[in-house]
């Protein structure tokens, strides 16, 4: 599945690769020295993906237990509905589940937009159906998305840009290996394992939608590029749209948000699962006045993940509450 070409390879810059020799050369040169990513889909040409799976990137800021429980719920749904899948351990605190579907090739911009929305809608319905709370929502409905290559060593770069392997691999797990639990998995991921062979699917994405009683079509704004920037820690850099809460989106628009406002923003981004490095990169991209890299890194490192304090933000952004997904009930009152 992951060796089928052509596709994009590399991290953070992605390179178009058409031949197995080139893929193997990149792998041999960079594996263990840098995070090694490939696009989730192979491509018909440089702008036309061949969508043959729905990808769920399930991970947590806190550890592997919750992602394992979430992945197990999604795996059970697939087993019950006889939908084939592939599960990979990410290398640190997450799982990648590929729900296999019959290939679809969107050729025109209109077809791509429709397929993005359909993918997102089905994935979102499955997230709700299986009570998955460790999902990286910005990764849903993506036609071009890089993901760690199975058998590659997990490597991240620290704040000084030095590569730090953790002794584990991004490793494919068979259903039987996965079912034996985290203790068994922790012994397996010290070895690279094998590249999985893609099972043959019988269902289209629309077929999956019909299996979901809570499915409804969601139309996302898709004018921006499919490529989301990747921080070297392996997490997505947040986007303004991905933040979700209208009050925080307004804060980001300011040229110089106040310190308490920045604390609310960073604590919520950490609650969503973004790494310190990703958050620092996001803040730098906003071009706020008097930005200082070293000071930002230190302050971000001291903030703990939590929901926003609605009572405080409501004083300045009360007009946003009516459009908020928390609706004034999910955040901290004090």
The number of domains: 2
CA-to-CA gap between the ends? 50 Å
Measured on Cα atoms, how large is the radius of gyration?
A: 20 Å
Enumerate how many helices there are, as a single number: 12
Strand residues, percent:
15-25%
Based on CA inertia axes, which overall geometry fits? Answer: globular
Oligomer: single chain
Largest sheet: 4 strands, antiparallel
Helical content stands at 25-40%
Low-confidence stretches are 227-234
Q: Give the tally of β-strands.
A: 12
- Average pLDDT taken over every residue: 87
Structural class: alpha+beta
Strand order of the largest sheet: 6-8-7-12
Order of helices and strands: EEHEEEEHEEHEEEEHHHHHHHHH
